[in-house]
Every structure is written in structure tokens, then in C-alpha cells.
Specification:
The chain is an alpha+beta fold. It has two domains: 11-125, no CATH class; 133-235, Immunoglobulin-like (Sandwich). The protein is 38% helix and 23% strand. It has five helices and eight strands, in the order H-H-H-H-H-E-E-E-E-E-E-E-E. The chain has helices at 14-18, 24-34, 38-57, 67-88, 94-125; strands spanning 133-139, 148-153, 158-163, 172-180, 183-191, 199-203, 212-219, 232-235. Strands 5-4-7-8-1-2-3-6 form an eight-stranded antiparallel β-sheet. Helix 4 packs antiparallel against helix 5 (94-125). The longest helix is centred in the middle third of the chain and has 32 residues, at 94-125.
Length: 237
């Protein structure tokens, strides 16, 4: 009888990957790894809404010069230490490796805590900015089995995120609309979905008074009014 599956060595990198805190080379390698690793895909699915909410709800402020370079240098040094220890470790030296691993994870946890504190400070400093909320959307259509969508709503804008979504029909794009009691208005937000089924689109206007955010498949270039039934409906009221 086979034993329990071993944790993936890449799992500690999921958060950094989603936050964009890895190099381009590392991002490509991890993206390829996600296609084969069920554990990392599950972790990414759980963390992605949190990352999306941070991006939509906090005003972006340029970091001090060299900050990313200094952080990445420290992360690379810790990662290299862990890789070297892992290559040479045996059963006798395993406790030392685990101790180093715990220190690296503690450092990562501290970094996440700093990000959370910065976000909280920004929200506190700007009382007119509410924390974002995540609204689950309904996906319909014969090709959309297993597809998911969510709307991350900030104070002044929102982001629609889809996963497992089929591409629109040939010659068409997805178009986002806002439904109010007075009628349905276009947002001029158009998007396509690549073969991996993941996409996001920013809705750069207030959702005040909006009952639903809907998505339809429209001819390339978009339409002035919906011409097909909605494939995504996010209720706001």
C-alpha cells in the first residue's frame, strides 16, 4: 500500500508567484510547474482571491527605489541556502534542514504580515476607501461547465476574474455591462480568454446603483447593447 503523498517542494513559492515577487525566469518555471502539480494549483486557487482583493482595494504607490531588488536578493539567498541544505541532507542532518526551512517560512509569513499591515494602514489613512469585497458570479452556457467567476469590488473600480472559462466564439469577444434599474449600459471593457481559461478585466467606473454586472459574447469590437444572453452574472443588489 502506498504511503501519503509528499508535500511539493514548490508550495512555498505560490504566494510569491501570485504577488509577482519572483523573477521572469522563475515565473515561467512555476507557471509550467502549475500545469502538473495538483497541490500547487489548489493553493493558488485559494490564495488568488486574496491577491485580487489587495490589487483592487489598495491604491498603488510607487515603492522606494531598489526595494524589490533588496527583497529579492534576500529571498534568493535564503532559497539558495535551503536548496544547498536539501541536496546534502541525510536522516541525521534532517532536523537542521527543517529548522532552516522553518526560518524561511517565518520570513515569508513576516513579509505577508507586512503587506497586510501596509494595506490596513492605507485603508485607515483614507476613511473614504472601503475594503474590497469579493462577489461570486454565476456562469452559464453549454461550454462553461466547471467555470468560475468572481467580481472584486473596490471603492472606485472593480475587477472581474474568471477561471476555467471557455474562449468566446470565433470572431467574438466578451463584453462587460452594468445593469441598473434604468437599463443596461456598456462599460467598454472587452476581454478574451486564452487556452488556460484564466482572465481578468478591470471595470474602471463606479458601481453605485448597479444591480448586476453581466458579461455577454459580442462581435469583435463590442456592441452598443447586448446581442446574446449573459454568460456571467454577478449580483450586487
Amino acid at each position: 500500500m502506498s504511503g501519503p503523498s509528499q508535500p511539493c517542494d514548490w508550495r512555498d513559492a505560490v504566494g510569491a508567484y501570485l504577488l509577482g515577487a519572483v523573477s521572469d525566469v522563475q515565473a515561467r518555471r512555476f507557471s509550467a510547474h502549475l500545469r502538473d502539480c495538483r497541490q500547487c494549483r489548489a493553493d493558488a486557487e485559494q490564495l488568488r482571491p486574496i491577491v485580487d482583493a489587495l490589487a483592487a482595494g489598495v491604491e498603488r504607490i510607487p515603492p522606494p527605489p531598489g526595494l524589490k531588488r533588496r527583497i529579492m536578493a534576500d529571498v534568493e539567498a535564503q532559497a539558495e541556502l535551503l536548496r544547498a541544505a536539501g541536496a546534502q541532507a541525510d536522516r541525521v542532518r534532517r532536523p537542521r534542514l527543517e529548522g532552516r526551512r522553518r526560518r524561511v517560512l517565518s520570513a515569508a509569513a513576516a513579509l505577508v504580515a507586512v503587506i497586510a499591515l501596509v494595506g490596513a494602514a492605507l485603508w485607515t489613512a483614507r476613511p473614504d476607501t472601503a475594503a474590497p469585497r469579493v462577489v461570486a458570479a454565476r456562469v452559464s452556457g453549454p461550454m462553461a461547465a466547471g467555470a468560475r467567476a468572481r467580481l472584486v469590488v473596490g471603492a472606485h473600480a472593480a475587477t472581474l476574474v474568471v477561471c476555467g472559462m471557455p474562449s468566446p466564439p470565433t470572431g467574438h469577444v466578451y463584453e462587460v455591462w452594468l445593469r441598473r434599474p434604468s437599463g443596461t449600459a456598456p462599460t467598454h471593457a472587452l476581454f478574451d480568454v486564452p487556452s488556460d481559461g484564466r482572465a481578468s478585466v478591470a471595470i474602471g467606473e463606479s458601481l453605485r446603483g448597479v444591480r448586476q454586472v453581466i458579461v455577454t459574447a459580442e462581435p469583435a469590437g463590442g456592441s452598443v447593447r447586448p446581442t446574446t444572453a449573459p454568460v456571467i452574472v454577478a449580483p450586487l443588489a
